[in-house]
Amino acid sequence: MKFDKAAGPNPTDAKKIIGQPHDRLDGPLKVAGRARYAYEFHDEAPNAAYGFILGAGIAKGRITALDVAAAEKAPGVLLVMTHENAPKQRFKPGESSPQLHNPEIYHYDQAIAFVVAETFEQARAAARLIRVDYSREVGSYDLDKARATATVPTHYNGDNSDTAVGDLDAALASAPVTLEVEYRTPSQSHAMMEPHATMALWEGDRLTVYTAHQMLHWAKRDIANTLGIPQSRVRVVSNYVGGGFGSKLVGYGDLTLSALAARQLGRPVKVALTRAQIFNHTSQRSATIQRIRLGAGRDGRLTAIAHEDWSGNLPPERAGNTGAPSENACFQTRLLYAGANRMTATRQARLDLAPGYAMRAPGEAVGLLALENAMDEMAEKLGLDPVEFRILNDIQHDPEVGPERPFSNRRLVECLRLGAERFGWNRRNPKPGQMRDGDWLIGYGVASAIRDNLVTASHARVRLLPGGRLRVESAMTDIGTGSYTIMGQTAAEMLGLPLSAVEVRLGDTNFPEAAGSGGSWGANSATSGVYAACMALRAKLAARAGVNAEGVSFADGHLVSDGRRVPLADLAQDQEIQAEAGIEFGDLTKTFAQASFGAHFCEVGVDRYTAEVRVRRMLTVASCGRILNPKTARSQCLGGMTMGIGAALMEELVVDKRLGFFVNHDLAEYHVPVHADIPDLDVIFLEGDEDANSSPLKARGVGELGICGVGAAVTNAIYNATGVRVRDYPVTLDKLLEGMPIPTI
Amino acid sequence: MRAFTYQRAESPQEAAAAVAARPDARFIAGGTNLLDLMKVDVERPGHLVDISRLGLDQINATPEGGLRIGAFFRNTDLASHPQVRRDYAVLSRALLAGASGQLRNMATTGGNLLQRSRCPYFYDTAMPCNKRAPGSGCAALEGFSRNLAILGVSNQCISQHPSDMAVAMRLLDAVVETVDADGTRRDIPIADFHRLPGETPHIETVLNHGELITAVRLPAPLGGHHSYRKVRDRASYAFASVSVAMVRGDGVQRIAFGGIGTKPWRVEAAEALSSPDAIADQVLADARPTDENRFKLALVRRTLTAALADHPAGEGTR
Ligand SMILES: Cc1cc2nc3c(=O)[nH]c(=O)nc-3n(C[C@H](O)[C@H](O)[C@H](O)COP(=O)(O)OP(=O)(O)OC[C@H]3O[C@@H](n4cnc5c(N)ncnc54)[C@H](O)[C@@H]3O)c2cc1C
Ligand code: SF4
User: Fold this and answer.
1) Taking the model in full, what pTM does it have?
2) Among residues A19, A198, A544, A594, which one has the fewest Cβ atoms lying within 10 Å of its Cβ?
């Protein structure tokens, strides 16, 4: 099914099941420990041997000597693989993931040896007996230093690294009020719950990998490319995935090495990365430096907007299958506010750290940390309320293109107004440092949120089984988001069945290829794939019932046509009826600017003695098209808000700029928020949101919108509380202390 | 983790003898620190002696009116013990400010005193670290040192002592009781128990190899207000950037600090002073911060000010 014109009325509009807050279908399985993750396919891949990856202890250079004799002789060891004996692999940047293919060290904790043994402990102990000599090279680890040599990236989000409209310099020169600021955001780690893990099993020349992955057809392509075998001989299974946030869009050492070793040993091999390995062996969100220049008239209307960013990465040929994208922090600035004269530019420097790659809302998540703080700074310069300043600069079309490219649906102003009302924004004192609660300095902050709406092809098979139950099969993944549930809801709605009559099977490349989970395109695209398959099944059922497909409807387990009601169970009495179809998207995302919007409101307390910051409450109002399931969507937003609070206050991969690695590589020292950091969070979705230009489901992406802008609402609140503006994330207490007077007693 | 043998000792002296007999042997108590370090290959014991069944899980009143806390008494139990909460509230609060519920359920009094460095380089065997590999150098001195010590540091090591409990013990003048392989017992005042890094940062206490902590003894209660103020980078489950333990009132003023010293820090001479600035000036007189942890100077002063403001002198209720 091709989606190339706005959706008209369709069966999903009934919203009897779609749009209802159903509990997650996979909830009971997970609570009971029966949802199996990649490392747990004991029956399918029995007697698996355990692999342990030894990582490089230097950041850049080459291996000059390896002594594996002790490791090979260690108890239980079956195989020690290094670049000296690893099978030949193929390399295609961005589409393969060879390991141990040469003696070069590209980054710290890159795989340099792989030990397989009867137990995990044996493999790990043996790996530590391997002696390695390196010749070290000087690397580049400091973005500030590398910035001067940054160039136009070869791979970035969006369609262009540089954009320019109007005459920015003239507009800035003549604007009565201007602002020029530079912000910094650090590298961050995805820190999802489930570590990267794979079990690999060969049956003849056919490979099955049970792996933790967000995007199964990419995994299949990458592993087939790496091993030099046809994709048709690879099956990838990822039934349940314990979070990914982008990290699992590509595979790492566990995927390739388990497959290589299992083939060599003729036995299944399983590998899970240790928590420490996740920080330097896999990928990370690149640090950025961002310069923002704004110009406005005294009336508060922006006349000039410039946003430039610098990030760093390995060269693509060293960045595995990530392709070494730049962190395009300017992307949202092209769409968010009006302003006739504007430019953005993205530059990338070389850094010899773990590959920089997509992490939840790549680009916007850090871009908005800078832009939405700059907007707060500008509002203060203009003497305007930050909410009103944003509303004043709302625009209903793509500001780079003009009215010929309108937004499909943009309700940012409503988000801001409703949020301000519900939050009690009018209680805010615009002058910093005026609100107090005992020893807490209180501040309120606001930020806008925008996240591009992405859609991508997705397929599904629906089977009406004898007995009348419906089964949905798709290679879509559920990384904890609710895919099972909303795809089941879609099928139930389309065929007039209760959700309890629908089974959903996901996460297997034996099923039709699907959107996968990334870029917030999953929910909208995958349910559209189910919609297409259900439309095809409805036509088949009508034919089986001998009625015209036009005018037929499905309700209460029946096909209904001209007053005739046929139980679905009767139609599939002897033989199941199935249909497979998919959705392909045309160019409506070009015709219309499409994005989800939101507004975040935050209250913080800052201890007047110690500068400890505590978020006291937060409200997000979001406009994301039709909400397919308010419960799972709300959970996505709560997770994003939590992550945004982390980005504002604590998350930072600390680079040792001499030794070239992320030093704080465990969860004791890489801080993400704990329960005590997260207070009352509230989410409101705007009523009646539907986006007919987005998909047949009229939905848009939710998952990443939740994080976009959150951190800026927090740091704007910190400024309101203290009068200290920190332009270097995260805002830890040491950065506030200097600007805060010591209370006397 | 490398292969090791395991033994369950039957008496404190037998445990001490078992460890003394092998240079690569270690006691294992709650295991929350030791096992972590074994998994990352920092600790490599060949033999573990389990001290969980030696009767060290008792807590008793002493004839002097204080408490004797068995070395295997769990952190959770200690924090919630009614007499500790009533008479040594600073200890209860310090314990509850540390780690997480799950860890405190396992962690023991002896193990907590002996927990090792949280310096990230100490945890990474690919990096130089004098504490882990004597003579290899100190990666933190010019590296990531934001949370490390500013007092008691040397050119060999600047790791802070991470324990919260030990700060309260220092404040309370606790005494560490030990036994060794031949049954010799000794009492070690807490002030003398931890060593400064000096030239030998890998030697952290005055204990001999195989010397077992059997108990920690608290003198009779001090009275006064008890407080433990811990400042850190998130609301819970993080090591102290700075902590201030304080007992004040009933004619007493005692202050000890965590997060800033290479051992639990207390400057008795400063306790007679009354203004926060005077106290801070004296405590910090010999501070040697790095660029990254210089903020702790201001933070100590401010946290101390907050703690003093919370508990005006002269009021005698706990
Ligand atoms: C993620 C994390 C966060 C933490 N946060 C904090 C925090 O905020 N504040 C804090 O104070 N602590 C914190 N801790 C540390 C925790 O308090 C210690 O791990 C715990 O107290 C150690 O006690 P244990 O009984 O488990 O010791 P073990 O791990 O069993 O032993 C530690 C050491 O002591 C030796 N030992 C144990 N008992 C004796 C004895 N009786 N005699 C002689 N030697 C002995 C062992 O041989 C070993 O070398 C944290 C730990 C973790 C893992
Ligand atoms: S500060 Fe101490 S623990 Fe840290 S690297 Fe230096 S010697 Fe090792």
Assistant:
1) 0.97
2) A544
